[in-house]
Amino acid sequence: MILYTMMPRELVYPEEAAEQQGASNQMLVQYQGVPVLAEQEDGMNYRIVRVMSTDPSHYLNEACSPGTKISLS
User: Fold this and answer.
1) How many domains does the chain have?
2) 9, 25, 33, 34: most buried, per Cβ within 10 A?
3) 38: in domain
4) What are the residues whose beta carbons fall under 8 Å from the beta carbon of 62, sequence distance 6 or more?
5) Which of 10, 13, 57, 63 is nearest to 38 (CA)?
6) pLDDT for 6-43, tens place per residue?
7) CA–CA gap between residue 33 and residue 63 (Å, rounded)
8) 24 against 58, higher pLDDT
């Protein structure tokens, strides 16, 4: 799909701009052998934002699903 518009990209896709602003406290970590994007909440506690793996079986692992709170200690 091609979108021809004079509007700025931030107005057309506002959720992408919001994700980039909040990305400062996110990091890529390995949790139980699965690469995930995690957001730091406090200390060593993180919340999984996104599974970054190309293995389909990793998406079925409930321990690595987005929103899950994990501890990296």
Assistant:
1) 1
2) 34
3) yes
4) 68
5) 63
6) 988 888 888 755 555 556 789 999 999 999 999 999 88
7) 11
8) 58
